[in-house]
Design a protein that fits this description.
Length: about 160
């Protein structure tokens, strides 16, 4: 299997984030009542810009239904691990500083203990502050600085791979 790397489509990720910030795409289950929909929404935005899923059982990144999905599609920690460690098909990322973020990247908010609990998507910047979109508490163009959190992880999507 030969993998080819493709550029992440930040415009597509942004357009998806904007379209679905205050609504739910019926193709995907709404996880609001199952712990929150933020990482599901972030995965959908990433998928819009990196349109290939990784169907590796347990450790991949995919969604077919509520019962058939990878933990990384909806779980904050699992998404982080997938994006940072992925060497196969699908999107991959690196952890960067807040100043290095771009539209379409994701941030993860955490507690002092290291427990990360929220995954907003970067949709713009105002005076150097990232503006984000998120589900669970639906928002678009919300300043990241308006959130209350002790720790922050910034994930820059580098691209995605698929078989050629």
């Amino acid at each position: 299997m030969t993998l080819k790397t493709f550029e992440y489509d930040r415009d597509a990720a942004f357009a998806y984030a904007k379209k679905w910030a205050y609504a739910r795409n019926p193709r995907f289950y709404n996880f609001d009542r199952l712990g929150g929909d933020c990482t599901n929404y972030a995965s959908q935005c990433i998928y819009a810009g990196a349109p290939i899923m990784n169907f590796t059982p347990t450790f991949g990144w995919y969604y077919e239904s509520l019962q058939n999905r990878a933990p990384a599609w909806t779980g904050v920690e699992f998404l982080y691990r997938f994006l940072i460690q992925n060497e196969g098909v699908g999107p991959f990322a690196e952890e960067v500083s807040e100043e290095e973020l771009q539209i379409g990247d994701v941030v993860q908010l955490g507690r002092e203990t290291g427990d990360f609990y929220h995954t907003p998507v970067v949709v713009g910047f105002r005076y150097g502050t990232p503006l984000v979109a998120a589900h669970s508490y639906d928002t678009f163009n919300r300043p990241l600085s308006s959130y209350s959190f002790e720790r922050l992880r910034c994930l820059h999507i580098l691209g995605y791979r698929k078989e050629s």
